[in-house]
Each structure stands twice: as structure tokens, then as C-alpha cells.
Amino acid sequence: MIPTIRKLLVATALAAFAAGPAFAAKTDVTLGVRLEPPGLDPTAGAAAAIDEVVYANIFEGLTRIGPDGSVAPALAGSWEISDDGLTYTFKLHSGVKFHDGTTFDAEDVKFSLDRARADDSTNAQKALFEPIDKVEVVDPTTVKITLKRPTGGFLFNMGWGDAVIVAPESAANNATDPVGTGPFKFSKWNKGDSIEIVKNPDYWGEPAKLDKATFKIIADPSAAFAAMMAGDVDGFPIFPAPENLPQFEADPRFSVVVGSTEGETILAMNNKKPPLDNVLVRRAITHAIDRQAIIDGAMFGYGTPIGTHFAPHNPAYLDLTEMSAYDPDQAKALLKEAGHENGFKLSLKLPPPTYARRGGEIIAAQLREVGIEAEISNLEWAQWLEQVFKGKDYDLTIVSHTEPMDIGIYGRDDYYFQYADKDFKAIMAKLDETTDEAERTKLMQDAQRKIAEDAVNVYLFQLAKTGVWNAKLKGLWANAPVQANDLTKVYWED
Amino acid sequence: MAPYLLRRLISLSLTLVAASLVIFLMIEVVPGDPASYMLGLNAAPDTVAALREQLGLTGTPVERYLAWIAGMLGGDFGISYTYRVPVSELVAERLWVSLPLALYALALSTLIAFPVGIIAAARRNSAADVTIMGVTQIGIAVPNFWFAMLLVLLFSTILRWFSAGGFPGWEAGFIPAMKALTLPAIALALPQASILARVMRSSLLDTLGEDFMRTARAKGLSRRQALWRHALRNALIPVLTILGLQFSFLLAGAIIIENVFFLPGLGRLVFQGIIQRDLIVVKSVIVLLVIAVVAVTFLVDLAYAAADPRLRRRNP
């Protein structure tokens, strides 16, 4: 008797559980994000959290970057490039309106690009616009952009969130009240809690399938877990605690989707500071590090080992991990050759993310094996920017470079790892002048090989994008070629 | 009464001036530049300089201190570097979460602590007293964030009676908003109630041992009558002190609970401000909190005067 009642109870409970809320007609979604964006203007800040809300949803550029990292048309339906690679003529879509009802045309493109490259511009990626010589309005749907020199990645660059087109009427208020051309409109922002966007009924292109999307800000990993389990949010495009993923995988209510990002995570070295100015020492350090141990120990196994500063999902990627394979004996031999067989001390300054703090402990232990004493200090981001990035007062640090296609930073003279190599800069200059795809691939591979040979940094792993969402929610990106949560194709499956 | 209050007011205003100086100096020495934080790893130095100019980060410290104080006296707390909205607006939004939460938690803790403390004192060394002392000891020892996580696990994940966190806003209605604040308020109230109950008990016990209590009993009042009419009021002074401190703590110090329940409260605003070097928010909110603490202290002083006639009559 008693077991029967218990069975009945369990069955009832299960039925109630399985029935849950009905999803059939659901047209809204609530997604958890880790960080609150400082503002909602993607042209005035580097925070990934801005693009995670507005990219492709609220704002659009001339081009856009697709889920696989390729360049696709956006506000510009097509374009022509002159033979010398200097003139880009963009043909714009007509009938496009900003969310405030004003018309989008070539003048807005000129305004946006001129604003981004102006002297007093506060665009975080001003370098993207540096090659532009002039922007001319040919007619309301045609824009001609003349470059100072051929720039192979120009179409890709115009697809960044920092290059979106804004209207002169609303540009100044975009941080608090964003007005774009995208398939969603900004609705409201409960500071500290959530941001809501709604469908734009007047969208020029294919309309969004969702009526409403809410981004809920949940920073704490255990709160994120509870919010998923309680059904408060439908998913986390990037779930903050990889250690919880097996629990979600075991639960049929959820899909766990592990993809890749543009985040090359590196152990950066101060290339001008002795003894790290000696390439032998740097090579020794690369051989002292066991990447897989860091991925397993710090990232719970999520992450792809890399041997150079390039995303593995890119067709031009070269797997150079063998060049710096884990080999403590070789590391010791190289240190001896460099005259450092008795070892030395280095500072290891760690910013707050888990990959750095957990990874740093493992790296310090691995370096100790070859006689290098790494002194760890934990920094906040603002301190890190001040001391390491700006002040270059460090020996080693761990950081993930999340901008897409950013190998060009190795050619910057005053960049924080202070590489500044003439030959590398020559490769980059040539790459800029080349528009032929096969030739570009070859040059990008030369660049990858060059920085691996010079052991500028230790290239650890590509940061994984570990997403968890309701199994019935479809159309979210698995990978993150740009830091975006593009909701234009997201829908609920019946 | 008036001289007593005047003296209190003067000392409290001096506290405010000293606090504003200390806060400003502390913020000055914090390393890290808000402009470079906002612009990230790819920004050119001239872009950072342009943003610094825009944010008003240039000028000598003395100029900036005076500008800040002058602004505050005129009710202008500045514009947040990151959010680009007036700080007063941000604080007002957050206050609508933090203030009700603090009051809710304070009400809960008082409602629990008063009866419990009185019972424990009235029946000293009884089984009830021993149990209460044991439970409150645990209540003080248990970290409130851990208790909060247990509440979430039971009421949100398993029973699904409450959402795991977040705040729908007061425009969603009184009941949904209060519901969202219930688990956080319980988590905050438990340790506070435990402390308050113990203070209530020991303060009552002290009072019960006083000569005037013996006199009251000798006049023929029962134990219970004596307790309610004479002891309770006299035992209130230390309890009021603790209540005042607790309110200030709840207003500003709920930051961990705000994180566990992802509530948009004042504590998280300050925390986020520190991380993002939105220092104008940090210093303005801290000054406001100092003002709040000072105001609460002043109210507690008033309450002392009401509870203890000697304070009213004494002339300096």
C-alpha cells in the first residue's frame, strides 16, 4: 500500500515537473549575462558586455560578422573594390529607418565613420578607422570610401561593433538610449538588474522571430546556477562556472554548447626586460609550460591548446603547438645555454578572471620545476591596466586577448609585451596591402610562425565559449567570433 | 533637551566634513584610471586622453575636491563615468531596492528578536532560554551568504516558490516586489535577529537586577508587571544602539546578499563602481551612506532622549 502511494506521489510530482510552463507560444527569452554593460553605445567603450546586448540586435554596420567569423552584408547590400584596393564603393539598402523614425542614408555612414576617426573620438578601436582617407556621399544610397593604403581586412573591420552606423540626431545619447537600425529596439534598462529589447516592427530586413528579449545581469556563478535551475533565465550564452556544466549536461531540460571564441589566452612576457629579452630564455619558458595541465586544472578541460596568437577555427590557423611542446629538460638546457642554470626570479601579475588566477598557480608550479621562481601578485583590472598594460612594470602576466583577428598587436611599438620586431612589422605591412585571399593566408601564416619562433609569449589556449540554454531554444551562436549575442535568428521550438 | 541635541548636531556635522575629506583622499590614492579601464586593450593613448578630458579627470586635487563638495551642496553628485547618467539618479534607483530591503530585514529581525529575547530573559536558565541561546549562537555563527544559498536551494531550485533572485521593480506591483525581497530579507534578518535577541536578553537581565526593580516588586507588582512596566523601557537603550548600527549595516553592507540574489542594490553599485573605477559613484555613494549613518545615529540619540528622561533634563 505505502509503496503504491509513494509511486503515485512521485508520478504526480514528475508530471507537474514535466508539464511546467507551456513553451508552445513563447516568443520572449531571458538570457543571463555576467557583466552589466557600462553603457549601450558600442562606439564608446571596449567592454564586451556592450556588444553582448546591442551587436546585430540594435545596431548594424555596413558589414557584419557571421557565426562562423565570415563577413556578410548588412546595411551595405553590396560593394565594389577598385583594382588598387584603395576605393570601396558601398551600395546601401534603401528604405532603412532608425528606431526613432529618422531615415538612414549615406550621410549617416559618413557621419559615423568621420566621428569614429575624429581627433576627439573616444572610440576604443580607433585603429580600425585609421586607414580611411576620406568618406564621400555619392548619392543617398552610395558611399565611397577612399583608403590611405590598401587594407585587406577593411570589410571585416567595418563589421566590428565599434564600426556600427549611428544617426547624428541620436548619437550623443546612445549610451543610455541607443537608437540603431537593427531588428530589435531598446525598451528599458533596470540598472543593475536587466536590459530589455523588443522587436522592431519596421525592420528593413528579415524580421526577428522573438517579440522580446531580456538580458539579466547575474555575476555570481552560484547565483547563475540557481537561476538556471529555478527557471528564472532561459540560458547563459556564456556560463560563468565551467565546473557546473556536467550537471547541466546530465539534465535533458538543457543544452550545453561548447564553442570557441576569439580569446587567445597567453602567458605574456615583457620582451624588453632582462632576462626575458633573451630569446633563449623565452623559448625555455615556452617549453616549461604544460598547456593541457592548465586547461584541465584551471578550465575544467574546456579550451583548445594553441601554439601561436591565432584562433584555431580560422581557416588560416597553423597548429604550431609542437614548436613549444612541454619538455622541462629542453627548458633547462636552454636556460643553461642562456647562462641561467641557477634560475632566477620573475614577477607574475594576474588579473581577476579565473583563467588567470587558477592558471597562474599552475604556471608558477611548472616554472619552479625548471628553476624559475615566479612571484604571484593578484591585481584588479584597473590596477592591471595601470601597472602591466600601461606601465609595463611586470615580467609575466596571463591575459586573454578577445578581439577578433588581433595578431596585428605584435606589430605595435609600444604594446605591453614590447616585441616591436622589424621583420614582423614588414609582414603585417605586406598583409595590409594584399587583397588576394591565398596570398593573405600565406602572410598570416608567416606572421603566426614568426611570433612562435621568437617565442614572444607563451600561447596557452583558446578560451572556450561554454553556453547553457533551454533545450527548446534554437538559433543562439555556438561560437563567438565577435562578442555578441545575435538574437536575430533565435526562436523557440514547439 | 535642546542643548543636548545641539551638541549632537555639531559633532555629527564635524563627522561629515572629516568623512568627506578622508573619502576624497582614499579615492585619490586608488590606483587605476577609469578612462583606460573603459577603453580596453586596443585603445590608443590619445583616445584615452580625449576621454579623460571628457570625464573631467583633469585639474589639481584641491580644485576637484572643492568642485565635488560645491556640487554636492547644490545637490549635484556628478555624472557617472561609465553609465553617463547623474549619480543621484543611480542612487535613487538603487535606494528603492536597498531601503525597502533594509527595512524589511530590520522589521523581521525586530519581530523575531524582541519576543525571543524577552522570553529568554523572563525565563532565565529554563529549557526555553537554553534553546534560544543555542539557536541564536548558531544564527550568529552561520555566514548569511551560506544561509542565503540554502534558502535558494530549498525555495527556488527544489520547491520553486520563489525565483532565485533578481528584482522585478516596484512597477511590477507591491506583492511581486516584496516577494523578490523576501528570501534576501530573511537571510539578512537571521544573524541580526540573533544578535539583537541576545542583547535584549542580557540588557533585560541587567535591568532586572537593579534596585528599582526590587522596589517595584516590593510595591506589589508581579514579576510580569514589573518586567513590562519598568524593566523593558530601561533595557531598550543598548537595544536601540544595536538597532541603529544594524540599520546602517543593512543599508550598505548587504552587498554579499545582493550578489547571491543578484539584486540591484546600493552595495552592488559601490562594488561595481570600484571594479570599473567609476570613482565618482563610489565617493558620492559613500558620502551618502555616511550621511545616512549620521542621520540614523541622530535619530537613535533622539530615541535615547525619549527612552531616558535623564538625558533630556541634564544641562551641561
The unreliable regions of chain A are: 1-23
Order of helices and strands of chain B: HHHHHHHHHHHHHH
Relative helix content of chain A: 25-40%
> Any idea what the shape of chain B is?
globular
Helix content of chain B: over 70%
Please, how many helices of chain B?
14
Classify the beta-strand content of chain B into a percent band: under 5%
Largest sheet of chain B: none
Label the overall shape of chain A. globular
Report on this model:
The complex is a heterodimer of chains A (494) and B (316). Chain A is built from 13 helices and 19 strands. Helices cover 28% and strands 23% of the residues of chain A. Mean pLDDT of chain A is 90; it is low at 1-23. In chain A, the strands form 5 sheets. In chain A, strands 11, 12, 13, 14, 15, 16 and 17 form a 7-stranded mixed sheet that branches. A 4-stranded mixed sheet of chain A has the order 1-10-9-8, with helices on one face. The relative contact order of chain A is 0.16. Chain A has helices spanning 2-19, 48-54, 106-117, 154-157, 221-229, 245-249, 279-288, 291-299, 328-337, 354-369, 381-390, 422-433, 437-453; strands spanning 28-33, 63-65, 71-73, 76-81, 87-92, 132-139, 142-147, 184-190, 194-199, 212-217, 235-236, 254-269, 304-305, 344-350, 372-378, 396-401, 458-470, 473-474, 491-492. Chain A starts with a helix and ends with a strand. The longest helix of chain A has 18 residues, at 2-19. With 494 residues, chain A is an alpha+beta fold. By secondary structure, chain B is mainly alpha-helical. In chain B, 78% of the residues lie in helices and 0% in strands. Chain B has helices spanning 2-29, 34-39, 45-55, 61-73, 87-122, 127-141, 144-158, 174-208, 211-218, 223-252, 255-260, 266-275, 279-307, 309-313. In chain B, helix 1 packs antiparallel against helix 13 (279-307), helix 5 (87-122) packs across helix 8 and helix 12 packs antiparallel against helix 13 (279-307). Chain B starts with a helix and ends with a helix. The model of chain B has no long low-confidence stretch (mean pLDDT 85).
